[in-house]
Amino acid sequence: MEFNTDIFLNNIAQTTDSPYLITIERAEGIYLYAPDGKRYTDLISGIGVSNIGHRHPKVVKAIKEQVDKHLHVMVYGEFIQSAPNLLAKKITSLLPPHLDCCYFVNSGTEANEGALKLAKRYTRRTEIVSFRKSYHGSTHGSMSVSGNEVKKQAFRPLLPDVKFIDFNVAHDLEKITYATACVIVETIQGDAGVRVPSQGYMKALRKRCDETGALLIFDEIQCGMGRTGKLFAFEHFGIAPDILTIAKAFGGGLPIGSFISSKKIMQSLTHDPMLGHITTFGGNPVCCASALATLEVIEEENLLEQVEAKGKLFEELLKHPHIKEVRRIGLMFAIDFDSADRVNQIVMNAKELGIITYWFLSHPYSFRIAPPLTITEQEIKESCATILKAIENA
Ligand code: PMP
Prior knowledge:
Elements: E1 26-28, E2 31-33, E3 39-42, H1 45-48, H2 57-69, H3 83-93, E4 101-105, H4 108-123, E5 127-131, H5 140-144, H6 149-152, E6 162-165, E7 180-186, H7 199-212, E8 215-219, E9 243-246, E10 257-261, H8 263-271, H9 285-300, H10 303-317, E11 325-329, E12 332-336, H11 340-352, E13 355-356, E14 358-359, E15 366-369, H12 377-392
Parallel strand pairs: 3-13, 5-6, 5-7, 7-8, 8-9
Antiparallel strand pairs: 1-2, 2-3, 4-10, 9-10, 11-12, 12-15, 14-15
Helix pairs in contact: 2-9, 3-9, 4-8, 10-12, 11-12
Residues 107-109, 112, 135-137, 186, 190-191, 219, 221-222, 247-248 line the site of 4'-deoxy-4'-aminopyridoxal-5'-phosphate.
Pfam family, one: Aminotran_3
Family: Belongs to the class-III pyridoxal-phosphate-dependent aminotransferase family.
Protein name: Acetylornithine/succinyldiaminopimelate/putrescine aminotransferase
């Protein structure tokens, strides 16, 4: 099938030399269905969105109920029982006490934009420290702090005063100074190919930020919402950020993100200058209702408790001489091979066999697996048998 880029340009497969085009008509749980009835197992959760599976009945019901009440309205100081209010109450109840104030936005990239602006206003500093191979989004600010130099090249000049350091390399932390407004970091680097930092490193990062007064921003847009077996990945490290950004799986399939911080820090954006960030649709009630239902599903179905065992099962079953390395935390995997060509072939083979895996933006030697947390033991076994076939034929 030909893909008509004249009329629709969203989300074209990253590698144009191996097009990955599937028409999907319907989705349910971990499965996607093409118009001809072909079934695909979604092992990437729509790149980190459907952590509780596609069209979870509780989420669909909450969306329908909100649609029947009202869609977007613009009333300040709005109703105590409004969807954004209930969502803010819920999400802050699941976070450390100092993360008690949310700003709802429309995407991950916007959550990071808000977080960066907030840090600059609060600290009155301008320098931002980020990490090589990181990904924080595609608008100018979030792209400026993303570590993929090749992809940024066409858009220079970008935001000035951004410094890049190596992830999980302790001596580089000295480059965070008293001039640094903030450090933005993916708690687990996702598109660098699932890089899990050490406990010691994360504690040292927190300490260096405390020493210098730089705010620490954790981008959990990909690794949050239960993906690693904790609701938020920073819980693995016994530290917390000054600002947290979330999106993707937060909305359970609808577009919503948030930057979350303390009231004290957040006030710098509302008081000086007045309305330091404006967004018409941020906190859209339908998206908030969907996000609230998503958080309730994670709790009610005890999904977090099952993540580690399911992750281990994948790891045990995915053994093949062509696999060089498996990096994993919870149900977030990078499977490494000896060449990008082999990875391309495996991803394409898997697709033909009805399994959706995918590439990483900044690590061509791996493919990703990040299935819905609701995947069953039987589905894991079936998926792994198919993936091994895809590897064998590559
Ligand atoms: N940060 C991270 C870690 C991400 O993985 C992504 C999306 N891949 C973003 C930010 C940007 O999110 P969005 O696509 O919703 O703008």
